[in-house]
Amino acid sequence: MPGVNRYAMYSDETAPPLAVMVEQYTPLVKRIAHHLVARLPSSVAVEDLYQAGMIGLLDAIKRFDNTKGASFETYAGIRIRGAMVDEVRKGEWAPRSVHRNARRIQEAMRAVEHRTGRDAHDREVAAELDISLDDYHGMLQDSMATRLFSIDEMESPDDHIDLSAHDRGSDNPLDELTGDNFRQHLAAAIETLSEREQLVLSLYYEQELNLKEIGEVLGVSESRVSQIHSQAAHRLRARLREWL
Predict the structure, then answer these.
(1) Which class is domain 139-239?
(2) Structure pTM?
(3) Which CATH fold topology does 6-91 show?
């Protein structure tokens, strides 16, 4: 039945066999893998994400406690995606210079916006960095892959806290409070972005369009969408620095 968590229909004594669970939720692993690989460099193979995701699924089946109130599909989705992200990170495909430049961009944005009291424009950030506009756009393009996870991570910085607390059976209310408080700050920060940046993030994360599809909606090139997305992510990180 669509939209129904069949796992929740079973008690601990009548939980479905492992093979049944794996077969039922393998499409979820594939869906998440294909969604992520569309955002990553060509050096990342969907097969690697799929294998990591299957390990995440097995881990979710082992650890899930249906007395906690969360649906299995939601819990498994977090575990599966987390396993895939960990796999990408282990690959270390992003050079240190990319991460260093990402921090430089965020610091430049903060400086310009503190000085002007408004959003920092491309040319202003480039001038703050003392580089050409083309070089700045190149830095944004290079950092795109590392920023692709940034919004997702910022939306759920407490995922690991929640999961570990779930595994330990922790009843610490501070964990949930901290996560809710952060999400409120993130939502407020997103509302301060330009209308175009908000639209790109909405199409990318909520509608799950890829960069090419977003470009077609906005009437701009795929590379320009990449720049807008990357700049929006950098801007959010700069504005949420105390949280991140």
Answers:
(1) mainly alpha
(2) 0.55
(3) Rna Polymerase Sigma Factor; Chain: A (1.10.1740)
